[in-house]
Amino acid sequence: MRGALILPWRLALRELRGGLRGFRIFTACLALGVGAIAAVGSLSAAVQTGLREDARKILGGDVEVRRVHLPLSAQAVAALEQAGIVSRTVEMRAMASPAGADADGAGNSKRLLVELKAVDDSYPLYGTIETTPAGPVPAALARKDGLGGALVDRDVLRRLGLEVGDGIDIGEATFRIAGVIDREPDRGTRVFILGPRVMIAARDLEATGLVQLGSMINYYYRVRLAPGTDAASWVEELKAAFPDAPWRIRGLSGAAPGLQRFVDRITLYLTLVGLTALLVGGVGVANSVKSYLDGRTRTIATLKCLGAPAGLVFRTYMVQIAILAGIGIAIGLAVGAAAPLALVKLIEAQLPVPARVGLYAGPLLLAAAYGVLTALAFSLWPLARARDVPPAALFRDLVAPSRRLPSWTYQPATALLLAALAGLAWATAPDRRLAAWFVVAAAGSFVAFRMAAWLIARFAAAINRPGRGFGPRLRLALANLHRPGAPTGSVVLSLGLGLTVLVAIALIQANLERQVEEQLPAVAPTYFFIDIQSNDIGAFDAALDSVAGVEEVERMPSLRGRIVRINGVPVDQVEVTKSAAWAVNSDRGLTYAATPPPGSRIVQGEWWPADYSGPPLISFGADLAEGMGVGIGDTLTFNVLGREIEARIGSLRAIDWTTLGMNFTVIFAPGTLEAAPHTFIATVRTEPGREAAVLEAVTRRLPNVSAVRVKDALDAVNQILGNIGLAVNATAVVTLIAGALVLAGAIAAGHRRRVYDAVVLKVLGATRRDVLGAYLVEYGCLGLATAVIAAVLGTAVAWFVVTQIMNAPWAFFPVNVGATAALCLAITVIFGFVGTWQALGQKAATLLRNE
Q1: How many C-beta atoms lie closer than 10 Å to residue 581's C-beta?
Q2: How does DSSP classify residue 601?
Q3: Which residues, listed in sequence order, are joined to residue 652 by a DSSP beta bridge?
């Protein structure tokens, strides 16, 4: 028994003394895939640890209570103060401009939309606001020379041309810029922000004149609980004491829910991309093992002829593969563990707290498990074949490869290993539904590309017959596509997967850019004006009439409400799909209208008469209705400014959000919301060059009105899309690199045969140019066929994503697809050329003497 264990180790180590040349691709494939998965997991762990350890700093307290429009009642505030220290902050959007700035001759002056935050002296309860110059927040915001202090983002200074010490107008008040905000730990959890931060003291907010009934204002109350208080239990007691309170409560576990979901989703996507690279590398693993064993054909056959049991042969080469797989996995783990040190520098500016970079065992063990399963799953088949093939068949293997399958023991074992790999991906994913789809898609892709490779080989065999009129180069190239041991399957599978991803990404990005750059600007308004008070409508219209160049104006009433019941059942007891969960997790915009708004189409039910005066009735977004499981005649109950209103669904609308016009998912019929305090929003479209004059006319006359420039919002969207596209392209390149490695491995695996064929052809009179031309035609055909298949599949994937998931118009961009196909062709030809050139350099005499 001991000898059965020691002898394979001795034989394996003895053979490994000859070097790792046959396993370089094997090691590189494992290192690449394992390194990608380990790097993504380690970086995610570093970010999530930072979020978890600094949850109090991000949240601003142990518990946060938020209400929209109105502050909490005195009774509710007293309940919070009994539990600990309370810090009050108010956040809203406002317009800022240099103090006393006069318009120029054209009526233009600098005005900037900012995110205004008013804080009390207790702020912050946790963490520190880092500023330049450094100092405590209360001191910076204190009044000096009759002016309150303001801390601003550096972008405010740049865009308004100001410096620390200058004055800045916000609403009807003037503030002194006391410093620049370098880091604000309880900010930054939102992905989409329209303006830079301006922070003032809460006592100075009233002087701005911005706090008006119905304005979009968020009131935050952060509580630092007394030592020993169980936060979860206290929150439940608070909810029980105020069961109908129109607020939202967050604890430490939800300190940064948006950022946490974003990190989880990005981690999942990138891990699946790394796993794709590892699966593609698995083909390289199988090729490397097969190539290595092909080089040991005579050794294996000799051992078997001398009486070596098949099990000894299997264990010997399994030991070698285990050692080399360990080396590749170790390299990948080392790279993955070190990668966050560099990657965190690229994202730390986007995080509210520093990431905790370090060694995290979980991600590394997971990456190692993926590597081990991949190495075993893709190595077992060629090893089992070498074990079971008779010595005589091994001697004939070079010219007549055996078609025998491994014994029944190894076939289910291989299937179990592949199932374990799929199960690990599913079990460890935060979104198991998406992971399940990935497993199905990966299996389908493998089958599809294997079938495509088989069809290419069969087609080449069918047309490569005598009498076709093909020249010798083309005939030799076609023969190489279907001959025994041809790399057709490996090349099509490895490059096809990576190129399919690249084609899909290129077409999706092109369609998104087309939507943003070509369609939206043609119909988009120039400005959105928000927080227009009801009694200021006349002044707003007068301001627009005072300037030339206003082409179109639309306005609608706006207020906030929260869905609290669906058909009389509390929303937390109703099963709502993930796609519709956002509509019940926080307040929603509401409006009322007598006629349907543009940009929407009624798909079910009917719109109410213009003079409707019956019970509360609403028109609802069709996509949300499907996600909530409601339809015509069902009821939704809204909490609007503390009052509950139950309304029946009278119609469902398909909403076209791409127009960037005013639209609401919930529109009330007349007669319900008119008496509630509310403001108006308006869209204004201007002639080119008149944007600044319109902004000046409105915001100077109505300083409480905020303007959102649509171009700025589109630029922010483009920046987000650009960053996402860059990340996705970078990860797709990892898959392509894995495919290139597999291609290199396939060429290396056939190197001995290339040398043999080249020598024979040269002996028969073929020139180097003839042989090289035939091989280049072979790889050109193979690359072109792979590119066509990847283009078709990638286009189909992109069409599905754009039309079915994004619900956007589809356009085909042949240039993008052609560029990707050209990349595939170039990679295949270049790698084939390099491998062929090395084969042509071999001396004929040396090979012939050995035959």
Answers
A1: 12
A2: E
A3: 604, 620
